Amino acid sequence: MPLPVTALYLSLSALLMLVFAWGVVRLRRSEKIGLGAGHSKALEVAIRVHGNFLEYAPMVLLLLACAELNGLSPLYLHVLGASWLIARILHGIGLTQGRGGYHAGRFYGTLLTWILVLVLALINLAQWGFGPGW
Fold first, then answer.
1. Rg for the chain, CA atoms, rounded
2. Lowest CB count within 10 Å: 59, 80, 87, 105, which one?
């Protein structure tokens, strides 16, 4: 069965991952650091922006694919997929601008990501009769 909506958000996520990876490579080259972050706070933050994205992407995108396979409306899939991208962009901007400390973008990006994981998990569990009112 085709998964056109998931394919869209998986592809856009891949492009965003490349943007975050480029941020790491750019700093590695400019600061001549081949491994680790050296003493560069900016590189440490860029590595975490990229790494954090990669930590959440598989789970969210697999949950989105399952929801699509289970027949969730394309409208809801697009809302969830777009929210995923917005959350990760917010997180990346917030972590970078906050230099690893508190920043509203980081906070709301993380919160939205967690909400998406929870909502997608519940949507998929509801397909098995484990929805509200268990």
1. 17
2. 59
The tokens describing 50, both together, are 């990229």
The DSSP output letter for 103 is: -
Query: Does 16 have pLDDT greater than 80?
Result: yes
Task: Fill in the amino acid letter for 101.
Answer: G
Q: Token digits for 20?
A: 């975050």
Q: Is 102 in a helix, a strand, or coil? A: coil
Classify 72 as helix, strand or coil.
Answer: coil
Are the C-beta atoms of 67 and 80 separated by less than 8 Å?
yes
What residues contact residue 65 under an 8 Å CB cut-off, 6+ apart?
3, 6, 10
Task: Note the pTM of the prediction, 2 decimals.
Answer: 0.92
Q: Chain-centre distance of CA 106, in angstroms?
A: 12
